[in-house]
Specification:
Layout (H helix, E strand, L loop, with lengths): L1 E5 L11 H10 L4 E4 L8 H9 L5 E4 L2 E2 L5 H14 L4 E6 L3 H6 L9 H17 L40 E4 L3 H10 L2 E2 L10 H4 L10 E2 L2 E6 L3 H4 L1 H13 L7 H23 L3 H7 L2 H6 L2 E3 L1 H13 L4 E5 L3 H11 L1
Parallel strand pairs: 1-2, 1-11, 2-3, 3-5, 4-5, 5-6, 6-7, 7-8, 9-10, 9-11
Length: 336
């Protein structure tokens, strides 16, 4: 099980520790470093900055939002960074949800998310393969565009730049069972948002047909600390925000996922409190047990014991959200 460092996205501004953490992760032998985006900082610019200040560590987006760019624009950014970094780029993509797609990007959320995702990946594969001009008779990502307001002058084009790698890895963030099953068919890896090493049966059927080399790379908050309850507070804060605020009361993929973990009533309660403006109560309502099973928090000995559970499943890469160099070092020692 390889280690990756997940840096997420910015809050009020750039985190001055991110570059230090990425360099330390590279020094410790971490395989990869990952950036993300929501509705503020983008994923590619910080990753390019990290690429310029490192030399070996792989570079991934976990995740770049599909609604933020056309598939060809995403392919352009990926192939450009792959060249600049010497072939270190891994492209992680996510569809996001209606709240973000329609509220932030001002675009309709696809009625068929599976089809939209499949077409998006297909266009990127064509760009990176560069075997011919991009053509797709798609419902969401037609190339050339042939909609009712088209000029009819669109021309199939092939990238001017020769991609460094036609097989640049494409990974997908997927939560629902059908989405995960499609990810296994069309992508090079899966980026689970939450992973419980004690509930691997939830993923067994979807991953049954995964080919050799398929990446399973979940994120987990990690922190070496004496007080487990104190260490879980950031995990609960993250869960409260995602479950309560990252979606509509009637359609929240994160809340649905928590429900599949056996916490359906608790997830709805978190939603109710968060949407009522009672954010502190919403965070408190996140069960400690749920926060604990998807993270690695506590003294070194406790983390070592729990890490063995993560090793037993199908995980190939553990992407840790770690706030300090000590935690990075301890995890490197425990997995080395």
């Amino acid at each position: 099980m390889r280690l990756g460092l997940a840096l997420g996205y910015w809050g009020r501004g750039p985190d001055p520790q991110h570059l230090e953490l990425a360099r330390e992760a590279e020094r410790l032998g971490y395989h990869s470093v990952w950036t993300a985006e929501s509705w503020g900082s983008d994923a590619f610019t910080p990753l390019t900055w990290l690429a310029a200040h490192t030399s070996r560590i792989r570079l991934g987006t976990a995740v770049a939002q599909m609604a933020a760019r056309t598939p060809t624009a995403t392919a352009m950014q990926a192939l450009t960074l792959d060249h600049l970094s010497g072939g270190r780029m891994m492209l992680g993509l996510g569809l996001s949800g209606p709240q973000v797609v329609e509220g932030w990007y001002g675009r309709p959320f696809p009625k068929s998310p599976l089809t939209a995702t499949r077409e998006y990946v297909e266009v990127i594969r064509q760009v990176l393969g560069r075997a011919a001009p991009v053509r797709l008779d798609g419902r969401y990502h037609a190339h050339p565009y042939t909609g009712p307001d088209a000029t009819g002058l669109g021309k199939p084009l092939k990238s001017i730049v020769h991609p460094l790698r036609a097989d640049l890895p494409v990974l997908l963030g997927a939560e629902g069972p059908k989405n995960i099953a499609q990810t296994v068919r069309i992508a090079d890896g899966w980026l689970p948002l939450y992973w419980s090493p004690s509930r691997t049966e939830l993923y067994r059927a979807a991953l049954a047909d995964a080919r050799d080399g398929f990446m399973v790379a979940p994120m987990a908050q990690a922190r070496v600390c004496a007080d487990v309850a104190e260490g879980l507070k950031p995990v609960k804060a993250m869960l409260g925000f995602y479950i309560g605020g990252m979606g509509h009361a009637a359609r929240n993929f994160h809340a649905d996922l928590m429900g599949r973990f056996g916490y359906e009533a608790e997830a709805r309660r978190v939603q109710e409190l968060f949407l009522a403006g009672r954010r502190a109560e919403a965070i408190d309502a996140v069960p400690d047990a749920f926060a604990d099973e998807i993270s690695l928090v506590g003294p070194r000995e406790r983390i070592a014991e729990r890490l063995e559970l993560w090793r037993r499943g199908p995980i190939t890469d553990l992407l840790v959200l770690a706030p300090d160099p000590e935690t990075l070092r301890v995890l490197a020692e425990l997995t080395g």
